[in-house]
Amino acid sequence: MLKIENLHAEVDGKQILNGLSLEVGAGEVHAIMGPNGAGKSTLAYVLGGRPGYEITQGTVEFLGQDMLELEPHERAAAGLFLGFQYPVEIPGVSNVQFLREALNAQRKARGEEPFSGGEFLKVAKEKAGLLKLDMEMLKRPVNVGFSGGEKKRAEMVQMGILDPRLAVLDETDSGLDIDALRVVGEGINTIMRAPDKAVLLITHYQRLLDVVQPDFVHVLARGRIVKSGGPELAHQLEEEGYEAVAA
Amino acid sequence: MNELATLPTTRDENWRYADPTWLASADLAELNDWREITVPAGETVCEILSVEPGAERLRVNVGQGGRFELFAINAAGPYARAEAVVTLKEGAHFEFGGVTIGGGKNRQEFVTRTVHSAPGASSNQVVRSVQWGQAVGNFLGRIEVVKDAQKTDAAQNFRAILLEKGASANAKPELEIFADDVKCAHGAAIGALDDTAGFYMASRGLPPEVARKLLIHAFVADAFEAIQDEDLRGEMLAKALNVLDEEAV
Asked: What pTM, to 2 d.p., does this model score?
């Protein structure tokens, strides 16, 4: 589904990704762990196509397409979802309005019929229920006045509504208490655990991986994958630290 | 009061951001021809304005406990100015929502002078500017609180979004307060559209032009939030955004 080869990227002239290669197949959940400054968020932003992140070398193929050729909104329509570590506030634009426009823009790009207001609300209610987020919150402006935990749950509601093929989740577990972590983790499982979908989970901690159990774990350090393994690698990291494992 | 003996120039504070070329050939008698509005005590008058090229000047007296509402779109050019001098009696209220929106070399401005002449009056002014090309959006808002006008509550907020390099905006809040028990708030901010929000919206599948329109819609909506009539509010918003569709790059 996703094939990254020898990816080099820089921000403000500083090289952050340094020959990263990674392959994610359909039906798989991959976790990427690594120390601060390793390039984890940069990887997420590069995949999302954020302006200011310059790719100097390498390729990214997503569902058979050259992803680096696509604009950010085209990547979304192709089935990519990027979960933000710090979801952005958009004053004056309600979640409902934002997500309906976004969903219908994606559907239009794929040549599908737009959702009516009623159809959209039905889906939105279902996904909000899944993440235990009050429907009233979805009527409020995007992320404005939301607590850290509410923002992360709202991200997952967005993911549920947009129904992507691949979710790249950048520290979706940060800022969550234990209960919210379980709700978010189970939400990810319900929405994304399917034979035709995949997840790339960027995280610092084992605790989310207890709920969303990865098939593969990778250690990202100095801008590339330095070690890959099964779920046991995450436990080893937790016990021994990055330095010992990634050295 | 307010009568001009000679044509003003941009050296006059009140006209400092005006178009000098337009001013030089303006008609003095026309400039001195204020439209008078009287709001009787306890009543409400709502004025909806589509600003025309040139200068439009309103002089409004609001009686005790009365309410004057002014909602305006300034999308005209090359120079378009709407000016209001509003005098508030005891417990009266002035509500102003204004939008300047345009490109080219348009110079669009709102100028208000709000006189809190008695205790307990309130005013709330929200102006939003969206400019591109080499256009200029201005808000000059003067608030006067006389000596006896205790418990005055005045608020003024101006924000501008410049869509392109070359566009500009000027804010000139001016407070003259002679009473001691008053609340006067003012704020002004000029900036570009939020890139971070733009990328966030794109990452959800919104094409840049749709994202931009949603952001500008939300931005402009602030100015018309106080319009009670939902249909009218929608119409005003649509009218302002229409300028963006028709003219913006």
From this structure: 0.88
